[in-house]
Amino acid sequence: QVQLVESGGGLVQPGGSLRLSCAASGFSFSSYAMNWYRQAPGKERELVATITSAGGSTNYADSVKGRFTISRDNAKKTVYLQMNSLKTEDTAIYLCNRGTLIGGLIRVGDYWGQGTQVTVSS
Asked: Which of 21-25, 50-54, 100-104 is least confident?
């Protein structure tokens, strides 16, 4: 069974850093693009970052460009989100998602982790 388990969230002050991890199992991890989404109260779920199956290409929401880095280690079946220069508006539940290819584009898939809370507050 497909399983995605996030970790690494917590409370951090503005300007601080966190690294989120998503451990995958139950599927051929290296064959799938992966996404990080986030959802804050009162806001729609937002795609934060995506990475291709081999890690050769990444994309980011404009709101996090230059601050966040998505990466993956296919040998460890883990995708990461390094978050630097955190802002209060980054506060959200961060969710790992197995991507799907539709029309050659990476889109949201049907498998999600449980989410990990990131709170940025002074």
From this structure: 100-104
Residues contacting residue 2 through CB under 8 Å, at least 6 positions apart: 24, 25, 26, 27, 98, 111
Do residues 51 and 34 make contact, with C-beta atoms less than 8 angstroms apart? yes
User: How far apart are alpha carbons 77 and 1 in whole angstroms?
Assistant: 15
Q: Write out the two tokens for 78.
A: 């883990």
Place of tokens 């460890």: 76
The two tokens of residue 113 are 């982790």
Q: Provide the pairing of β-strand 116-120 with 10-12.
A: parallel
Rounded to an integer, what distance in angstroms lies between the CA atom of residue 56 and that of residue 53?
8
Confidence at 96, pLDDT banded by 50, 70, 90: very high
Q: Are the C-beta atoms of residues 115 and 22 closer than 8 Å to each other?
A: no
pLDDT bracket for residue 38 (50, 70, 90): very high
